[in-house]
Amino acid sequence: MEWENFRRSDNIEDRRGDDGGGDMGGGLGGATGGLGIGAIIILGLISWALGIDPRVLIGGAEMANNARHSTQYSQQTAQPQRQAQHASGTPTDAMGQFVAAVLAETEDVWTEVLPAQKHIQYIKPKLVLFSGQTRSGCGAAQAAMGPFYCPADKKVYLDLSFFNDMKRKLGGGGDFAYAYVIAHEVGHHIQDQLGILGKAEAKEQQASKAQANAISVRIELMADCLAGVWAANADEKYHVLQPGDVEKAINTAKAIGDDRLEQAAGQRVVPDSFTHGTSAQRVQWLNTGLHSGQIDSCNTFAR
Question: In angstroms, what CA-CA distances link 139 with 73, 170, 302?
Fold first, then answer.
């Protein structure tokens, strides 16, 4: 991926080296009631390392996440959390520079695409870099959760150690694979601006477990598609993709499909338990966005 000549975003809050912000509270961050792309990868890695059925870890994390969302999401405006002071601006280290470049590219693309396609002004989310743990508007942010988007404070949270785990244990490394992860979380921010996350949250609270899981799958697949829309428009204007880039992102999407995780644990595949979609679905929707470059092509609720 050609990123070295991108401008660098200064819309970054660098909390690396902080002590975690004191009382962390409970809960796991995610877009609605489910877990973000980072969380599902990290839990898969943990289960692989320990020889545990990944559904046990994922199910427990989602139970905690759903409980937190049902009480906390609606309280954010009434009870704002105390904000600590953190360094803001463009990081100077190599990986910080990469993240700042990718974030800037998402800003530049969505600032044009969102108004052009949906007549909505793009509001840039802040990206928080942290190490180990920190506080978010959605509760605790921990490295073991992986990257996630918090709709309560409109921020993407990222511990860079996640990329090392992708490369060493999933074979999903590479600049564009890392950019795909960031773009997926920014995709949740696009959903938030379109009002989709709020509606999905309301439906999940009234749905059965299986129905809530199905809603989560559609939200996550849409974020995959929106990451593809971003990449398509970035490549059309800036020619950012290099040979092999798309394949690396697809390999990452394949590795984190719900069916792949269940099969890796030697378990029977149970579609009602899916929260992110099968490997084939994730690849399909990433490709849909890549080939169309259109937000409307990502309507996973219509298919």
Answer: 10, 28, 32
**Residues 26/140, Cβ–Cβ less than 8 Å:** yes
Q: Read off the pLDDT of each residue in 74-95 and give the average, rounded to a whole number.
A: 66
Q: Which two tokens stand for residue 84?
A: 């600590």
pLDDT bracket for residue 23 (50, 70, 90): very low
d(CA 45, CA 255): 10
Q: pLDDT tens-digit profile of 173-212?
A: 688 889 998 999 999 999 999 999 999 989 988 988 888 8
- Looking up tokens 């990222």 gives 158
d(CA 133, CA 143): 6
Residue identified by tokens 């992708």 is 166
Q: What is the pTM of this model?
A: 0.78
What is the pLDDT of the chain when averaged over all its residues? 78
**Alpha helices (runs of H) in 135-244, residue ranges in sequence order:** 161-165, 175-193, 196-206, 209-238
Give the residue carrying structure tokens 């990986």.
Answer: 95
Neighbours of 303 (CB within 10 A): 9
Residues across the chain: 303
What is each CA distance from 250 to 15, 19, 286, in whole angstroms? 31, 36, 8
Q: How far apart are CA 65 and CA 213, in angstroms?
A: 13
Kindly give, in sequence order, each residue whose CB lies less than 8 Å from that of residue 92, ignoring residues fewer than 6 positions away: none
